[in-house]
Every structure is written in structure tokens, then in C-alpha cells.
Amino acid sequence: MTVADRIEPHQLPELATLFRSAWWLTDRTSAETARILAESDLVFALIDTDRLVGFARVLTDYAHVALVLDVVVSPDARGAGHGATLMEAIVTHPALQDVRSIELVCQPDLVPFYSRWGFTTKVGQSLLMRRARG
Predict the structure, then answer these.
(1) What is the pLDDT of residues 36-58, one digit of tens each?
(2) Which of 38, 46, 88, 94 is the most buried (most CB within 10 A)?
């Protein structure tokens, strides 16, 4: 198992399949996926032999905040520690070591998983807010 820092062009169909496996990613178009990859500061692709089994990305200013997004593992590979491999790669990435706050949004059932890396729900009175297009 290796963690790569990019998605190769031949892996785009695999990434699209991976995105369709997660409820919050199912409506991503090919054009949006290409732009996501181009504009993300850090990309983490989990490769098992020659197969893409996991993905995550980070948006950051490299000083104050980093936002972890789109952590997803292929359904047939879940439960084998691949999500932990992705998270470990993120929190130990050299470019993020001086960032004051690494943040993410997750479903309540995943709080125990992310707590293993020091993520907490204790964020004061902060609320997630969203302005969605159309």
C-alpha cells in the first residue's frame, strides 16, 4: 500500500467510481473532479498494487488552517485500516506540521475515528454554515 500525492490521468475513472461510492460525492462531474484535483493544495491517493482504494485532499494556507476534505475508501476495502493510513499521511505530512489548526467535517458516527488523531468536537460555539448554489 502506498500513498501518492497525485491522481494520474489513467486513475480518473477509478476516482469517479470511488466518489460515487460516498453519498456526499455522488454528483461530482468529470470537469469538477479535474478542477478539484488541480486546485487542491494536497492530494492523497491510496494505491493498493495498481488500484486506487482511497482518496483525501487538503485545502490550506500552510500557516493558520488546513481543511481535510473528501476522505473516502472503496467500499470493498473498508474496515482494513485504509482510512487510518490516509489520515496518518495527512496529519504527519511535512507541509502541515506548522499549521495551527487542521479541521474537518464528519458525520457523528465518525467522531471516534477522527478523535484518534486529536480531532475534537469542542470548537466553542462554532457552527457549520453553508451557502449553496441553486
Answers:
(1) 999 999 999 999 998 999 999 99
(2) 46
Amino acid at 31: A
Report the length, in residues, of the chain: 134
- Asked whether the beta carbons of 52 and 14 are under 8 A apart, the reply is yes
Longest CA–CA separation in the chain, Å = 44
**What Rg value do the Cα atoms of the chain yield, rounded?**
15
Count other Cβ atoms within 10 Å, centred on residue 112: 8
Whether 41 contacts 51, CB under 8 Å = no
Tell me which DSSP letter residue 116 carries. Answer: T
Range of the domain at 19: 2-115
**Tens-place pLDDT, residues 85-130:** 999 999 999 999 999 999 999 999 999 999 999 999 999 998 888 8
Helices 30-39 and 12-20 pack at an angle, to 10 degrees, of 110
Alpha helix (H) residue ranges in 40-115: 82-91, 111-115
The fraction of the chain above a pLDDT of 70, given in percent, is 100
In a domain, 102, yes or no: yes
Residue type, position 62, single letter? Y
